[in-house]
């Protein structure tokens, strides 16, 4: 099992074992045992979907404490473009950027600036024909982890370039060293993050030997203080820090990255279920006529991250209005720029999380056993056993983490017992349960209407 840092965590005290999370996890990384959920570490991709659906707030994301910036002599903030969508009536990005400096940062460099460099590099690489099409964006770290876990055959389609967050951090650090003469250890670079997956990518990079960031703060943690600081700013207080345009800021919402390539044959999907559907079709070679595929695990793109504060559709609309006041782009790579400076320093490797065994013959034997167990289960995918599906329970059984008796239906069938104690949806022909028919509702409405006509009672709407 891989030793992986995760920013998505579980609070055992708040967990009620309700099984909402196990159904929504895209990699089936959550189980419920002993009335508590637990996360299978090497399957978790830190997408934050469990945080989004947990009604008891038992799932949460770890983010840095703001006092961490005090460890460094020179502090740089990297705001994600999705941060701009959190503020109502924002018509000048410099309010946000100046506000961050007032909070204690020495410099602010927009991640949307790095996004424009990455867009330019992607356009150049598409023109050379060196990329395997359709090219899959590498910007969403949760998508990268999803692909290496569930769709390893598609790794060769992933764009092997820095994310805007990573390249902006590298750029900001080099500029700070030239400006201040300080060594790396005295320069702190912090990302203002919309999602836990990006925080995990900082602590546990997959495609880089060395990470350029020192930490990340959640947008929802920064927002209250930043908003108060911005409210106190006057137009004369603003510093001219904005250095990006429509293309860079557009990365905040779904379709922005793909549109920045100035190509027509692209697809943009957001939301974890839609992303999985696209990857399945791509694996089946149904989308080979496309040049580029942009995928975002969060609904609406990064504006829908679980660490934001605003409704993703509202935030997207705000960013669309904000972009009207911007130039198309403010950044482009020099003509003789070597693209290797933007490329991964190591290849993305498949995750072993789904492998049944390292030995091929043993894995085949276990797979045969898994299918036999799955066929013997009822196929209801009810989640009562604590696994998200019957196949997931069969997988747990062959790995030795569960037994067939964990399925209440299999146990009941084996004992030949009465099923009257079962929840109503799973009972087999309970004569005491009356199933309402469509005509019953029609008669009820007719009786209520006639009663109202007689003046005895006005029917309620």
Could you characterize the architecture of this molecule?
The strands form 4 sheets. This protein has a 4-stranded parallel sheet with strand order 6-5-8-9, with helices on both faces. A 3-stranded parallel sheet has the order 7-11-10. The N and C termini lie far apart (58 Å). It is α/β, with parallel strands linked by helices. It is globular, with a radius of gyration of 26 Å. It has helices at residues 20-24, 49-53, 94-102, 111-128, 141-150, 164-180, 196-203, 219-231, 246-249, 256-259, 272-283, 312-323, 360-376, 390-399, 408-415, 438-453, and strands spanning 8-10, 30-33, 36-39, 59-61, 74-79, 107-108, 135-136, 187-193, 215-218, 266-270, 292-296. The chain folds into 3 domains: 8-61, Alpha-Beta Plaits, CATH 3.30.70.20; 66-131 and 159-260 and 302-342, 3-Layer(aba) Sandwich (Rossmann fold); 355-426, Orthogonal Bundle (3-methyladenine DNA Glycosylase II, Chain A, domain 3), CATH 1.10.15.40. It contains 16 helices and 11 strands.
CATH topology term of the largest domain: Rossmann fold
Cα Rg? 26 Å
Mean pLDDT: 90
Helix percent band: 25-40%
CATH class category of the largest domain: Alpha Beta
Oligomer status: single chain
- What is the correct CATH architecture of the largest domain? 3-Layer(aba) Sandwich
* CA(first)-CA(last) distance: 58 Å
Low-pLDDT segments? none
- Helices and strands, in order, run as EHEEHEEHEHEHHEHEHHHEHEHHHHH
Report the β-strand fraction as a percent range: 5-15%
Provide the domain count.
3
Q: How large is the count of helical segments?
A: 16
